[in-house]
Amino acid sequence: MDAEGLSRLFTAPVAACVATPAMYDAPLLGAEAEIVANAVDKRRREFAAGRACAREALAELGVAAGPILRDG
After folding, report:
1. Per-residue burial over 31-49, b = 16 or more CB atoms within 10 Å of its CB, e = otherwise
2. Alpha-carbon dihedral of residues 59, 65, 70, 72, nearest 10 degrees?
3. Contacts (Cβ under 8 Å, ≥6 apart) of 33
4. Of 30, 5, 25, which is closest to residue 16 (Cα–Cα)?
């Protein structure tokens, strides 16, 4: 299913992103690096890709880029 098909499933605006290879080397913003400071390299790269992908999807919804931190 593509992003357009996905958006038809919801009444509120939605956005989706598929991580690209470059996203695994994306920089972490602010305190994001602290979250994975003690993680192995594979985990840090997965985390970076997830955050980069999330930022891209949020940008499609008009949300400014910034750190995406975990909740409590």
Report:
1. ebeebbeeeeeeebbbbbb
2. -110
3. none
4. 5
Any idea which of 9-13, 17-21, 29-33, 37-41 has the lowest mean pLDDT? Answer: 9-13
Q: How far apart are CA 67 and CA 36, in angstroms?
A: 13
The residue assigned the tokens 């919804």 is 61
**Cβ within 8 Å of residue 70, ≥6 positions away:** 35
Task: Choose between 70 and 5: higher pLDDT.
Answer: 70
**How far is residue 19 CA from its own chain's centroid?**
8
- Give the type of residue at 50: G
pTM above 0.70, yes or no: yes
- Between the alpha carbon of residue 51 and those of residues 2, 13, 44, 48, 60, the distances in Å are 20, 20, 10, 5, 14
